[in-house]
Amino acid sequence: MLEILHGVNVDWMGKRHIAYWISGICVLISIVSLIMHGGPRYGVDFTGGTLVELQVTPPIPVDNVRRAVDQAGFTGSEIQSLNIPGQYLVRIGLTEIHHVDPAPRVREAVAVTNPGSTVEIRKVETVGPRVGSELRGSALKAIFLALGLILVYVAFRYDWRYSLGAVVALFHDVFIALGAVSLTNKEVTLTIVAALLTIAGFSINDTIVVFDRIRERKQTLRREHPAKVMNIAVNETLSRTIITSFTVFLTVLALYLLGGEVLHDFSFTLLVGIVFGTYSSVYVASGLALDTQLYLEGEGLRRKKAPAPTRTAKTRG
Amino acid sequence: MTPSDRRKLFGTLIGLAICIWALWPTFQFYALSPAQRREVLQARPASATNDVERERLTKMAKLRDGAIKLGLDLQGGMYLLLEVDKSKLGPAEAKNAVDQAMQIIRNRIDQFGVAEPTIQKQGDNRILVQLPGLLDQGRAKELIGQTALLEFKIVKTDDEAHALFNRIDGYFARKMGGAAADSSGPDSLRHPFTGRFLTVAQGSESFALSSEVAAIDSMLTVLRADSTFTMDAAIAWDSHETELQGRSGRNLYVLDKEPQMRGTEVASAQMRLDLDQERPGSPGVAFNLTSKGGAVFADITSRNVQRRLAIVLDNRVQSAPNIRERIPGGHGSITGSFTEEEAQNLSIVLRSGALPAPVNIVEERSVGASLGQDSIEKGVRAGAVGTLLVVIFMVVYYRLSGLVAVTALLLNIIGLLAAMAGFHATLTLPGIAGIVLTIGMAVDANVLIFERIREELRNKRTVLNAIDMGYSRAWRTILDAHVTTLLSAVALMSFGTGPIRGFAITLSIGLIINMITAVFVSKMIFDAWSLRRKVSTISI
């Protein structure tokens, strides 16, 4: 029997304060990055505008593309050279478009100013201002719908004290993934929103497996300190948590490395989310559930005028 | 095997057979050569001329409908969201405008010849058009977006035009501060409007330099928006630029407000190259009017001999010939500076009728064939590599039991694809990502079960007992985990936009099928294996 994580006996809960610091710092980095970039860098899906991907064979310097785009009248557009030589992304803002179809114009301008190169349009995305704001609205709606549904389900299936931990962990994962998108200066597009929602589902999935075990162990180990019960539950589910995350990580890594440009940012976001989702189900979700529980028990005891129990977790290991 | 096991196995095999049957057209379709595939995509049984042909085409259409379709992002194509501008319509006209526009756009696209276009109404005033595998995207956009409102209007006399222009000059002069009353002021102040033209109402035409066109247009917009100014005529530019004294510009026409006749009376239209005597070989469009239209046309021409009749398309004057005599036949032609393609487009839009209102493209997503090809190759390769990695890991880690999980996984993929074919779902690149993600997550249920079985074995349970306990105890967790992931997928589906929906759909179907294959089928395999012999060990 090949086993990697059997019989681990780590005092996870005892070290949860270290984890809170790590999470706090990651969230802080995300916030700082978002502030420095002036909020998420929305793609044309949400801001409106036009995105044109060109293939020029043989490749030309990116400055030539820039000059051609300027000549076509779209000054102030953003030009980006893609990883594959000869492929360029041209982003034209809404204000630049005056009742003309930019894509053919850009193509023509690049072709005319670079004789000897053939220019092909690989992709065009044009989103009008109203559609952009509608997509923003429906993305927000989808996010709140997902979070709301998950919250209701978790509250219904588990003690509400647990759902707090689960939901905080969920926000934590999604927010850090968003921070990673911002930090790497990637655009927030529809696909990134899809990735963030998938992370939400994945994060809660992991958390639930741990919570299920905590609930089961609580019944068999009634006398034990909650921290110890949680440690046992986390340790017992650890190999499953790691293995599942690992298989998902493998497939998403394949998408990231081989899936091509379109799926690149999507799978990058998922990778970050999977790593943090795994970590947070152990630490953030369970840790917070423990702290909520300890806090409430303390309150209850205080009300009964009994001495408060010690807050430090006594655990083996 | 117990009778209940036999029933389960039988049920599974039937399920598998149904899946393979559902996937069969997909196998057949993608085994064809690209050229054959194109033929299948364009097969229309209704167009057959004889029974043999009809049978062949019907077969092709059936194959096409049964196979999993590739999304626009994988096969290349264009996605357009159009908005019908109802701002200038009355309530009665506005009611049917979108449906009418949809019908007309459908007609135009049908004549353009695209395999399997999708045209759907979205909301109150939007039309979604999807054109898969389209190569000439610029031309298609032109064809769809052109209002194609054809009108025949009498050109006002020069005196009438002058009277209107004087009033316009007066209007703007007053607006700019009373200088107009003082006739000694500079010309630009006395004639703020006509001062922008090189010639004013000479032979029905007023010529303005190209650089002035935008300024004149914005003045006209101000006039039209002001209800205190009575605009008793229609003002329209020529459709193409001309030269005057070696400088290029455009002619402006003052026309009757109401058209004498509209393009609804056009019975047929063809692109021709021999219409313009001055420029032989230049493309134009010849049209025939309906018998009613022919009579009206004869009447108009007899009443307006020696005046000019403007043929106005989408508020641009295409040509304004002099009426020499009554024209009875009901034939006409439109010439101008068309390219052959533009003339071809114009003949199509004239045949299929004018849109009831202008349509604007509010969203466009088009993918070239090369990017689509790239995406599908890379997506499939990433999926294959990802699957292989998971398979290797599962077999190395759980050995024979891992093999059971892999079998369940493969059944899951087959079931997912079969469901997609059955529901006529479209496979998009995010959809492929959804499948790949499903593969990663699908083994989760088996991992949960196997880890549980291992635990039970460590607790010194017998193999059979451990298997049973593993399955029953893990079941609850599996259900919870799947439901929560499904919830976020459902939220994604509410998103509405094509590719994202594709992702959500494959992910959801995959998760649901996974509950069956990973739990039910894998348990069945274990049962079948363990009951046949006295087991004391298990490879897990």
Written overview of the protein:
The complex is a heterodimer of chains A (317) and B (540). In chain A, 65% of the residues lie in helices and 9% in strands. Chain A has 9 helices and 4 strands. In chain A, helix 3 (62-71) crosses helix 4 (102-113). The longest helix of chain A has 43 residues, at 261-303. Chain B is α+β, with helices and mostly antiparallel strands and 540 residues long. Among the domains of chain B are: 3-25 and 368-532, Multidrug efflux transporter AcrB transmembrane domain (Multidrug efflux transporter AcrB transmembrane fold, Up-down Bundle); 37-67, no CATH class; 77-147 and 360-367, Alpha-Beta Plaits, CATH 3.30.70. Helices cover 56% and strands 17% of the residues of chain B. Chain B contains 15 helices and 18 strands. At the A-B interface, strand 4, helix 5, helix 7, helix 8 and helix 9 of A face helix 6, strand 17, helix 12, helix 13 and helix 14 of B.
State the CATH topology of the largest domain in chain A: Multidrug efflux transporter AcrB transmembrane fold
Task: Tell the overall outline of chain B.
Answer: elongated
What is the tally of helical segments of chain A?
9
Q: Give the number of DSSP strands of chain B.
A: 18
The largest pleated sheet of chain B is described as: 9 strands, mixed
Class of the domain at 3-25 and 368-532 in chain B, according to the CATH hierarchy? Mainly Alpha
Computed structural class of chain A: alpha+beta
Instruction: Name the largest protein-protein interface in this structure.
Output: A-B, 74 and 75 residues
Rg measurement of chain B, Å:
35 Å
pLDDT below 50 for ≥5 consecutive residues: which ranges of chain A?
306-317
Helix content of chain A: 55-70%
Name the helicity range of chain B.
55-70%
The whole-number mean of residue pLDDT values of chain B reads 85
Q: Could you tell me how far the N terminus lies from the C terminus of chain A, measured between alpha carbons in angstroms?
A: 25 Å
With helices defined by DSSP (H or I, 4 residues minimum), what is the helix count of chain B?
A: 15
Question: How is the biggest beta sheet of chain A arranged?
Answer: 4 strands, antiparallel
Number of strands of chain A: 4
Give me the CATH superfamily of the largest domain in chain A. Answer: Multidrug efflux transporter AcrB transmembrane domain
Q: Given this structure, which CATH class of the largest domain in chain A is correct?
A: Mainly Alpha
CATH architecture of the largest domain in chain A: Up-down Bundle
The spatial strand order of the largest sheet of chain A comes to: 2-3-1-4
